[in-house]
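A reminder from the course coordinator: this example appears on the midterm review sheet, so study it carefully.

Given structure:
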């Protein structure tokens, strides 16, 4: 034994002496550029190609000979997904992969809080690092174009400015854990129907003003280390190997130095993948029977077929060197990052981040009195009610399940019913009210009519005896109900909820409706329901956040990140027939152009049922008159718009003060106004604060197709200060003189 030890230390000593000078690619003190170049110079062509494609569902090859590790990825974006089998989509049934489910990104967007976005990124990054993931597949920043899109819940709403501001801290804080963000789905994956092939056509203006800004902010400000291509086509070419999107815009114009990863199965052609900006191919389908290789992944487009093209000189070697460089850079930033922390999952700190985001993201859509009394129904004070009836499948459903790739396996989960029970104790009774079937991806379970009727009957009977009813409904991440792979089939609530709501309010006017969804829904009963709360998908601590807001422990401060059209035809995407949405199955044209969301409602004077930026509070905020630091400015100068906001009620609360700007020069078609700033402030009763926004020429620009660049006209503009996009409290006119352009 002793001899063995001596021999062992001799061998080790000799090894360290021989390696006193580390290969450059392993020397962590040297610059990343040097290490990447050195590693690349030692690799064979075969090894470089191997970096570019999957070796399992969620990992890619390393270079074992050089000690370069594999890359491990996981969904994203609301928590770290449970482990998936090596070769298929089944769960691997590990016992150590339960995590925190954070609120869905629509809820994060509804907080209007960059600080909470940073906290989200930091916490999810720590969980990803603990689970040994190098790339987290998120955040999603596709723009909410239509409430029918099955995946809106994974995105940050309809406004490019809001999504841009909010995605940046998420990415930055996530990446501090040595985990790359993979911002998805680049670009124009705005519907699930026909997502694998629909060819999106739109103007350059809509592309640059609406659909690209959040990706641009993610790259230029967030410094995201990876981007996921979208499934769909854009202007005739698949987005995962799209010369215009990936080579021209992402890599050339924005100088992106990270990796472009396909969406799973989004690669379709070796030549295009080699030439048009793709770096890593994941999730392509090989059935294991017709495959020509022993190792089926070798049949991927960027695998042997790419190697052969390189060997035959059909594509230049510079393509593989560029891809391998980007992948090595990603490795040095993540798996080979010496500073990466250990991470942690499901900690009290992460739970409090999840709860806080829920607290601040829940939106109070409506709060009135059920009778003509002055008092509003919410908050529900415990001492006022003895019999509180909770109704609804969503009150007990595990909404971390379903939805597609963002599905999560939680360590802990507080359902709305549990949250309300711990707030109100045994005053709470429960009736399911409606049934919606199991979460099934790509399938739906039929609920027999007799079941629907008997559940409804039971709830209505119990509602007759209750002091107040809290109905928790909405969508539920089943197929067609906020789920990847399919759009919603109708704008209305599913599973007979409309009928249930109508019947409940007939027998009990004290009804609070909580909608859990990532999308707007039609509300034919809206005038009959005194209190409506938009509760999103809130993750592990969701029930707690909901109970906090309903009870008044937390004063709601969430604001809608998208408009709720009264009916579907009021939404811009649906105003031009099928060619605009969903397309003719081959192609679609975004005919509403730049008039997405509130830009459409405002400009076409079609009021939304609930407007972008809307969200009530249990207190009231008084806005002073906004003022500008100067009447006009030019060139690179700036002006300041100031406004004083006072909490004029009796409860402490938070308000999101919103700045919109409208171009009144009349020189170019523009939306009435566009969001250009916001500030969320906390105010004690009676307290007031001055909020100040800086406006620069950049905030006034539009994308000028004639010059292929951003431009600004000289003339009159108007600043709107409001509590929502339609609750404008004051406006300030100013002029801008474009002497930069004049000098040209
Ligand atoms: C989704 C992506 C996801 C990937 C891996 C795809 O179907 O579109 O968002 O990251 O699967 O699960």
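Designed residues:
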């Amino acid at each position: 034994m002793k001899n063995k030890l001596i021999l062992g230390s001799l061998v080790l000593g000799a090894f360290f002496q021989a390696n006193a000078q580390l290969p450059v690619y392993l020397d962590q003190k040297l610059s990343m550029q040097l290490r990447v170049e050195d590693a690349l110079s030692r690799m064979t062509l075969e090894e470089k190609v191997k970096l570019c494609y999957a070796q399992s569902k969620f990992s890619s090859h390393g270079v074992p000979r050089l000690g370069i590790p594999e890359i491990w990825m996981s969904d994203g974006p609301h928590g770290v997904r449970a482990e998936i089998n090596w070769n298929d989509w089944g769960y691997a049934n590990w016992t150590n992969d339960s995590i925190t489910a954070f609120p869905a990104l629509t809820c994060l967007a509804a907080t209007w809080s960059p600080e909470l976005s940073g906290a989200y990124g930091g916490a999810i990054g720590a969980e990803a690092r603990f689970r040994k993931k190098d790339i987290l597949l998120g955040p999603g920043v596709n723009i909410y174009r239509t409430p029918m899109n099955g995946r809106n819940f994974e995105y940050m709403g309809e406004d490019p400015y809001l999504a841009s501001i909010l995605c940046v801290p998420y990415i930055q804080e996530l990446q501090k854990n040595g985990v790359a963000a993979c911002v998805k789905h680049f670009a124009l994956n705005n519907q699930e129907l026909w997502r694998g092939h629909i060819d999106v056509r739109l103007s350059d203006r809509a592309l640059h003003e609406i659909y690209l800004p959040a990706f641009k902010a993610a790259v230029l400000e967030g410094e995201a280390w990876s981007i996921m291509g979208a499934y769909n086509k854009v202007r005739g070419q698949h987005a995962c190997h799209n010369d215009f999107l990936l080579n021209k815009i992402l890599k050339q114009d924005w100088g992106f130095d990270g990796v472009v990863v396909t969406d799973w199965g989004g690669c379709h052609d070796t030549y295009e993948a080699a030439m048009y900006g793709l770096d890593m191919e994941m999730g392509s389908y090989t059935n294991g029977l017709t495959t020509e290789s022993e190792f089926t992944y070798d049949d991927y487009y960027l695998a042997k077929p790419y190697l052969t093209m390189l060997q035959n000189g059909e594509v230049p070697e510079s393509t593989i060197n560029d891809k391998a460089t980007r992948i090595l850079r990603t490795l040095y930033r993540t798996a080979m990052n010496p500073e990466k922390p250990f991470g942690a999952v499901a900690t009290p700190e992460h739970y409090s981040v999840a709860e806080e985001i829920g607290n601040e993201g829940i939106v109070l859509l409506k709060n009135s009195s059920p009778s003509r009394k002055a008092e509003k129904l919410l908050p529900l004070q415990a001492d006022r009610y003895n019999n509180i009836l909770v109704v609804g499948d969503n009150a007990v459903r595990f909404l971390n399940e379903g939805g597609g790739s963002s599905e999560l396996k939680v360590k802990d989960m507080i359902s709305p019913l549990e949250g309300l029970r711990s707030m109100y104790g045994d005053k709470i009774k429960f009736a399911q009210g409606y049934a919606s079937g199991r979460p099934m991806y790509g399938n739906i379970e039929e609920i027999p009519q007799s079941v629907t009727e008997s559940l409804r009957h039971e709830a209505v009977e119990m509602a007759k005896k209750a002091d107040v009813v809290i109905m928790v409904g909405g969508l539920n991440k089943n197929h067609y109900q906020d789920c990847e792979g399919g759009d919603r089939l109708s704008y209305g609530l599913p599973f007979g909820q409309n009928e249930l709501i109508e019947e409940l309010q007939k027998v009990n006017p004290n009804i609070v409706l909580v909608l859990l969804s990532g999308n707007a829904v039609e509300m034919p009963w809206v005038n009959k329901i005194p209190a409506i709360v938009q509760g999103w998908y809130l993750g592990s601590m969701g029930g707690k956040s909901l109970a906090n807001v309903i009870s008044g422990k937390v004063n709601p401060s969430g604001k809608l990140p998208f408009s709720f059209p009264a009916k579907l035809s009021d939404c811009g995407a649906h105003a031009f027939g099928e060619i605009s949405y969903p397309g003719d199955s081959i192609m679609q044209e975004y005919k509403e152009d730049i008039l997405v969301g509130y830009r459409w409602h405002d400009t076409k004077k079609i009021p939304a049922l609930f407007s972008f930026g809307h969200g009530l509070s249990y207190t009231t905020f008084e806005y002073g008159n906004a003022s500008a630091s100067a009447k006009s400015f030019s060139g690179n100068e700036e002006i300041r718009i100031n406004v004083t906001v006072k909490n004029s009620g009796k409860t402490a609360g938070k308000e999101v003060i919103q700045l919109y700007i409208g171009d009144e020069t009349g020189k170019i078609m523009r939306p009435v106004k566009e969001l250009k700033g916001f500030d969320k402030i906390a105010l004690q009763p009676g307290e007031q604060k001055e909020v100040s926004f800086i406006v620069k020429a950049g905030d006034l620009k539009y994308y000028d197709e004639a010059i292929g660049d951003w431009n600004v006209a000289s003339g009159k503009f108007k600043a709107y200060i409001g509590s929502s996009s339609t609750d404008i409290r004051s406006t300030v006119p100013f002029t801008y003189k474009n002497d930069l352009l004049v000098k040209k």
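The pocket of beta-D-glucopyranose is lined by residues 75-76, 137, 184, 263-264, 405 (CB under 6 Å). DSSP finds 19 helices and 27 strands in the chain.
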